[in-house]
Design goal:
single chain, alpha/beta, Rossmann fold, seven-stranded mixed β-sheet, 7 strands, disordered N terminus
């Protein structure tokens, strides 16, 4: 379970992680498939009992620890106040502000190429046409950050994928969205506490 907010900044930055949930800003996009990453980030903050605050990096951030004690991992969980294809600038600004290197960055994002509610975690790789990842890789100057890939599946029939990702989840999908958010949040926490290999074993369905 997530810990409560802890204002103590005395622990080293080596145990601080940046988790960015990707999406588009504004109420018209809030419940769309493209925003599943931001939805997972919001769920993490909600479970931890902390609120987001506005950050100058065009982001909303919440900070809390997993577990107890000054050595417990500290999470900076963020959603961005920019459109998906501009995600790199705010992500880089947050990483610089909190002095977090790319190997302690987790990007939660929607993934067309895996089924709805399936999860894959990995380190590095290409952007697979995802404009948010493309922007982040360019801004960071590296692709070596963790990806929390949240499956939304391919659109039915001949529907344009660009249109599909900007539509709300179907009524059937909405019945299990809470479970999806819980699992996504747990996978993000597992990356921090247990590492990539164990997380892949437990969550890559």
């Amino acid at each position: 379970m997530f810990g409560r907010s802890n204002k103590d900044k005395s622990s080293a930055n080596a145990n601080r992680w940046l988790i960015v949930g990707l999406g588009n800003p504004g109420p018209e996009y809030e419940k769309t498939r493209h925003n599943i990453g931001a939805m997972v980030a919001a769920h993490m903050a909600h479970v931890a009992g902390v609120k987001f605050s506005s950050h100058k990096a065009r982001a909303n951030v919440s900070e809390f620890r997993i577990g107890v004690g000054v050595d417990a991992p500290s999470l900076i969980v963020a959603t961005l106040r920019c459109y998906m294809n501009e995600s790199g600038g705010p992500t880089k600004a947050l990483a610089d502000f909190y002095k977090i290197k790319s190997d302690h960055i987790i990007i939660a994002h929607d993934e067309l190429d895996i089924p709805y509610q399936a999860i894959r975690v990995k380190l590095g790789g290409g952007d697979n046409g995802h404009n948010g990842l493309k922007s982040i890789t360019s801004a960071l100057g590296t692709a070596d950050y963790f990806r929390l890939r949240l499956g939304i599946g391919r659109p039915p029939g001949q529907q344009d994928p660009a249109d599909f990702v900007l539509k709300p989840f179907s009524s059937a999908e909405r019945k299990t969205i809470e479970e999806f958010l819980i699992t996504g949040a747990e996978a993000a926490e597992s990356l921090v506490t247990h590492g990539l290999e164990r997380t892949q074993q437990n969550f890559n369905s």
